[in-house]
Design a protein that fits this description.
The chain has 15 helices and 17 strands. It has 408 residues and is α+β, with helices and mostly antiparallel strands. It has 3 domains: 212 residues, 3-Layer(aba) Sandwich (Rossmann fold), CATH 3.40.50.12780; 89 residues, GMP Synthetase, Chain A, domain 3; 85 residues, Non-ribosomal Peptide Synthetase Peptidyl Carrier Protein, Chain A (Orthogonal Bundle), CATH 1.10.1200.10. α3 packs across α4 and α12 crosses α15.
């Protein structure tokens, strides 16, 4: 029993349909709304006794959470991952319930231009605990190369662009000769053709390929080059995080100071305050997201990938759930702090951020950065307030603490 979960416009569906039908399997077509509801999808798997499941990691993470609370166990014996990078650590809750001797997880790498799958790797508990990024060795008939920008092979263990050669490489893009010439190039090692995938990877000494994300998933924020996938990986390490996504936003394209990283998580346990602490320990300051928004589920495209365009704008005030801010609201002491210097600072912060701010809100948790700190200092000078040294703000990042420090 196989599931046909994804849109026919998504290359993964080729594997779902023909992998099943060419091996004598029974294909279960998943209704659209069931594919959008992890609970309904889980019920369908149970009712139809599905044994082979094909999923993107993002969709599977939400299925794992839906399955965790139910007693009847599924009949799934093989889970094939594709469509996006798999963080092997996210499989640990599934492996606790369905050990690899009962259900075999397989991570596959491939792309439309190479007729879907190119590699395969079984992921067991050992690989999950290690956070393996391996997608395995090339399937028969395929060749894998990791090359530098000049098209030269890089040493084992060094990252470069993944190139794929073999019989399944497509002829090119319809009516796009320039793009075809750019991406489909001669294979100097076999005399055939190969495809430049645009993916980063590195080959290990045992011939396995580690997939490191997209080359175009790197963003630049205030002079720093940041891999969004690396931040997502750290989020998924945190206990209680079932799914995560990270995006770069800039409210005003002409104003670099408005650029920020927004994180979205599905939590089964914990709070955003604990998550911020975890991020602060694991990441340099410039990679820590300005906001962390909790969602019941991450929005998905028809292809089962995270719909980044469908993520809501973060509620930057409610995202700050630290004890100091909560205490200020609970005790009703905002009015007491909104006197004298504190009241003036609140006005400055609201002017700079453009939204409501409480005395206990953290400057950096609200989306503050070095450029906004400079802007805040300028506004304070214009209003005749005490001079603001950046170090003072970094050490006292709330209105309440900053007012005390400046008064002293």
């Amino acid at each position: 029993m196989w599931t046909f979960f994804h849109s026919a416009a998504f290359d993964f569906s080729v594997w779902e349909m023909w992998g099943c039908l060419l091996t004598g399997g029974h294909l279960v077509v998943v209704p659209y709304w069931s594919s959008r509801s992890p609970e309904q999808f889980r019920d369908l798997l149970l009712t139809e006794r599905v044994t082979v499941l094909n999923q993107t990691p993002s969709a599977f993470a939400q299925l794992v959470e839906a399955d965790r609370a139910h007693a009847p166990e599924l009949s799934v014996r093989l889970v094939v991952f594709g469509g996006e990078p798999l963080d092997a650590r996210s499989l640990l809750p599934w492996l606790d319930r369905y050990p690899e001797f009962r259900c075999r997880p397989v991570n596959m790498f491939g792309i439309t231009e190479t007729t879907v799958h190119v590699t395969a790797e079984t992921v067991g508990r050992e690989q999950a605990l290690a956070g393996s990024r391996s997608v395995g060795r090339a399937l028969p008939g395929w060749w894998l190369y990791v090359l530098d920008e000049a098209g030269r092979p890089v040493p084992e263990g060094v990252a470069g662009e993944i190139h794929v050669g073999g019989a399944g490489v497509a002829l090119g893009y319809l009516n796009r000769p320039e793009l075809t010439a750019e991406r489909f190039v001669a294979d100097p090692f076999t005399g055939g053709r190969m495809y430049r995938t645009g993916d980063r990877g590195r080959l290990r000494t045992d011939g396995r390929l580690e997939h490191l994300g997209r080359l175009d998933n790197q963003v630049k924020l205030r002079g720093f080059r940041i891999e969004l996938g690396e931040i997502r990986s750290v989020l998924l390490e945190s206990p209680g995080v079932d799914a995560a996504a990270v995006v770069l936003r800039q409210d005003d394209p002409a104003d670099p100071a408005t650029g920020r990283l927004d994180a979205y998580v599905v939590l089964s346990d914990g709070s955003t305050a604990g998550l911020r602490e975890h991020l602060g320990r694991k990441l340099p300051a410039y990679m820590v997201p300005s906001t962390v928004t909790v969602l019941p589920v991450l929005p998905m495209t028809q292809n089962g990938k995270v719909d980044l365009a469908g993520l809501p704008l973060p509620d930057r005030v409610s995202a700050q759930d630290g004890p100091e801010s909560a205490a200020a609201s609970r005790d009703g002491d905002v009015a007491g702090w909104a006197e004298g210097l504190s009241e003036q600072l609140l006005d400055v912060w609201r002017h700079v951020f453009g939204f409501a701010v409480d005395p206990g809100d953290d400057f950096f948790a609200l989306g503050g950065n070095s450029l906004l700190a400079v802007r805040m200092g300028a506004v304070m000078r214009e209003r005749g307030l005490p001079a603001l040294h950046p170090r003072t703000l970094y050490l006292h990042p709330t209105v309440r603490a900053l007012a005390d420090a400046l008064s002293a």
